[in-house]
Amino acid sequence: MTAPLCRTARGNEIALMLDWAAAEGWNPGLEDAAAFVAADPEGFFVAEVAGEVVAAISVVHHGTDHAFLGLYLCRPDHRGRGIGYALWQHALDHAGDRSVGLDGVAAQQANYARSGFIRTGATTRYEGRLTGTPSDLVRPMIAADAAAVAELDRQANGYARPAFLTAWTAPQPTRRSWVLEETALHGVVTARRCRDGVKIGPVIAPDADAALVLIRAALAQMPEEPVIIDLPEASHDLADALTALGFEATFATARMWRGPAPQAGPTLQAIATMELG
Questions:
Q1: Is residue 256 within 8 Å of 136, Cβ to Cβ?
Q2: Domains, in order of start, for the chain
Q3: CB–CB of 159/244 below 8 Å?
Q4: How many whole angstroms separate alpha carbon 173 and alpha carbon 92?
Q5: pTM to 2 decimal places
Q6: For residue range 145-197, what is the model confidence (pLDDT) as tens digits?
C-alpha cells in the first residue's frame, strides 16, 4: 500500500471532519467548525490516499503546556491499513512537549495506552429533557466578563485555553454563554444547538445547585430537545440531580493524558466538548 500523505487540514476540510463525526453519531454543534479553527488553526490534520481525504484527527494547542486530541476518524473503507495510526503519529508531533489529553471510547483505550496515555478519569454523557427557567442571578455574558470567565475556566480545568474560550463564548446565532453573578461573577455556561438537540457546556459553578440554575437559565433562552450534558467523573452531585430529573447516561469515555495531567477543580461541572476538552 502507498503510504498516506499526512498534512494539515485546509479550508473546509474541518467542516468535513465534523460531517464525519456526525455520521459516527457524535452530534457536533452547528457552528463548531469556526470555533475549533480559532482554537488552533494548525491543529487539524488529514490523511490522503490517491488524492482523497480518508482520515482525520485534531491535536489542538491550548497554550504552551497543554493540548487536546479529538476528531480521530477514518473512513470505514480505509480502516485496518495503518492509515489512522500514521496520521495519529504525525498529529501528535504537533503537540511537541505539551501534555496531551483525550476522551477515549472503550474500544480504543488499550491502543491509546500503548501510545503513553494514562486514564485519569471519565466523561459521561447525560441526555434528557428539561424546562428552562430564567434566573435573576444569570445574565448574558458580555465582553467585559472575559477576564473573569477565563480565570474561572483556568481554575476549573487546571490550565488556560484562551483562544478556544474566546471563540467558544463569543455570541453566535446557535451558541450563547451566560454568567452567574451575585456579589461577584462565579459561574458560566455555554449552550449550543447541535444537529440533534442542544449541548450544554462548559458548566462552571460552585456546586450542582448553582449549575442547575445556570443550565435552566440557558435553556430558557435556547429551548431544545434533547438536552445533552457531558459530565466529568467528579461531578457526582450534578449527575445525581440530572438522573433525578429523568436524564439517562447514554455514552461514556475515559479521560486520558500523555504527560503530566492538569488538576481539574471542583467547579468543573460539565466539559465544553469531547473533541477539544
A1: no
A2: 5-118 (3.40.630.30), 125-270 (3.40.630.90)
A3: no
A4: 33
A5: 0.95
A6: 999 999 999 999 999 999 999 999 999 999 999 999 998 999 999 999 999 99
